[in-house]
Amino acid sequence: MARITKPLTNTEVINAKPKVKEYTLSDGKGLYLLIKPNGAKLWRFNYYKPLSKPKKRVLLGVGKFPEVSLQQARKMRDEYLALLVEDVDPLAYRQEQKQVELMRSENTFKIICAKWFNDVYPSKANNPDTIAKNWARLENHVFPFIGDLPLDEIKPRHLLDLYQRIGASNTLDKLHRLIKSTMDYGIKLGIIEFHNCNIAKDDFIAPIAKNQASILPIELPKLITLVNNAHKAHRVELNTFYAFNLSLLTGLRQGELTRLEWRFIDDGLLVVPSHLLKQTRKLKEQPRDHVIPLSTQAKRQLDTIRKINGTSPFIFAKVRNRAEHMSRESVAKALKEILQGTELQDRQNAHGLRSIFRTYLTQIGVNVVVAELALAHHSSGRGKVQAVYDRYEYLDERKQALQHWGDYCEQCGLLTE
To answer: Which residues does 249 contact at the CB level (< 8 Å), separation at least 6?
Structure first.
């Protein structure tokens, strides 16, 4: 007949005193309390390893009293006994669960997102600035709410709460694409088998994106007059003034313009290296420099700028550090201040200068391929097959188009000296 063990009471556990040698108090069904000479009280579970021949006894630590109470120790014992009924080893099960928890802690949304940003995103993103901006968006809007969640716990309801905070917008569209890409990457890594996060976005439709603010070429004299007046009144730095002028004459983006170096100018041509251009996937895989035939107005601008910044490697050097280039935001900020309170307020920005240029080329009948190449849109205006086989750069045609544009800008009042 099996010996019946009287279950322990809380009082017995609390009052158990240390002795010279360690000893045990049994609670029954394999659970007992080990009292150490130093006064430590440790719960132990004793069982036979399932399917072992000969039977092998295993001693499993359950926790320390009082951190683990008598009731908690019994609950764990009962869970282990249930596993043993199914021939599952409690020790192996606990180790497996710890491994699962460790893997889940290493597979949080933020960790996997960072891995995707490092391993995959650079091959898809337009440029490093885009990557940095999108990471900042995630840090501001996403990571505080789901960054620490394991991928397998992220459900549409989590994203629904998140998207309601952000609201339907272009920012939300960008964030949703980043979240979906991260979840898709989790599937590829074998962390999750599937996700249905797309349905969280269904009810959030962003407003139609607006074109960059840009006036028509016929209004260019007003814009140039306002900028010239600000220059004469010393309300705009020389660097910024000439950067505006050259931006207008060349159609370059601000990030391209402000990083120009003197060595890029050769025999009447401004050769912008491909790594400075907006990094489309095609451009990254097939690098191609952007060649700009300089109009007489652009050449005179550069001659004047060289007198100011000729000692710097950069055409538009920083005023206080000639070894660095000016900020890409300089023209945008200055233009916003200059146009404040005028009829052109909110109707023109720095990036929109490219639109005035492109619209003028259309007005004077410039071939669409030539006009698009003038803006460094290398394949636009040509069919996909044509773009593959047609390697002609239309350099003479672009030179003529840019000279027409330079003449028009000068007629509109552009100061070229």
So the answer is: 295, 297, 298, 301, 402, 405, 406, 409, 414
